[in-house]
Design a protein that fits this description.
alpha+beta, 28% helix, 25% strand, five-stranded antiparallel sheet
């Protein structure tokens, strides 16, 4: 069941989204060669709680940390640990925050220091795909229009869309209907209507779209070891067009799209 939100509820989600954006920007300032992902997670958890929020991922279906941190070939759900960040790494910071009972969710893949040209192209493509998907998130369109826009940008650039992972509705619950795939035909799927709130999140790879779930039950890696990127915004469908509830602050390319 798709749950549409009132303007008051969307405002609450926007407040959560502002804290999400601030958290990602803050963690980005700490993301330097030599830091461990565990230290980044601890800093993020403290940052969120000091501002009255709750890290939504912590304890969600048994997930053990405050945020997800996914380096290099880890597409999503990386569990922060002793991994030491290095020059040239691609590191995704994926943050969910619950504030006053409402949730916002966003992810950003940082390039650490100097990255390879193909890695830079992967990051640019994933961001462009997110922007293209958001542009289709308007009243009257269908989920497939968002999905197709993302897929087109990614595959035109020569990269792959992970097909076994999708975006989702979000609001009072972390994952709500509908699913938002990153591939598909335009004009298909549920129709977008005012008050819907969705997480659009291209997850793409340099190589094969196939992934494996690791023994911890959370970490999802590319099957061929290729680099990956993941960008996500929580978006409200409004009469005036898509409203990004997690606008970027203090990150490269940090203007609201």
């Amino acid at each position: 069941m798709i749950i549409r939100k009132s303007p008051r509820e969307i405002a609450k989600m926007a407040a959560a989204g502002a804290l999400v954006a601030d958290t990602i920007a803050y963690v980005g300032t700490l993301l330097t060669p030599g830091v461990t992902t565990e230290k980044l997670d601890a800093a993020a958890g403290t940052f969120i709680r000091e501002r009255g929020g709750i890290p939504t991922s912590e304890g969600y279906k048994g997930y053990p940390k405050a945020i997800c941190i996914s380096p290099n070939d880890v597409v999503v759900h990386g569990i922060p640990d002793g991994f030491v960040v290095g020059e040239g790494d691609l590191v995704t910071i994926d943050v969910g925050v619950t504030l006053d009972g409402y949730i916002a969710d966003s992810a950003y893949t940082f390039g650490v220091g100097e990255v390879e040209p193909e890695s830079k192209s992967l990051l640019d493509t994933a961001q462009n795909a997110l922007e293209a998907g958001i542009a289709e998130a308007v009243v009257g369109n269908r989920v497939g229009d968002v999905s197709h826009a993302v897929q087109t940008v990614v595959e035109r650039a020569g990269f792959s869309v992970v097909r076994s992972l999708v975006g989702h509705g979000v609001g009072r619950h972390y994952h709500e209907d509908p699913h938002i795939p990153n591939f598909g035909a335009p004009g298909r799927g549920p129709r977008l209507s005012e008050g819907m709130t969705i997480a659009i999140e291209p997850m793409i790879t340099m190589g094969s779209p196939d992934v494996n779930v690791m023994d911890d039950g959370w970490t999802i890696r590319t099957q061929d070891g290729s680099m990956s990127a993941h960008f996500e915004h929580t978006v409200a469908i409004t009469a005036d067009g898509p409203r990004i509830l997690t606008p970027r602050v203090g990150v490269p390319g940090g203007v609201e799209v």
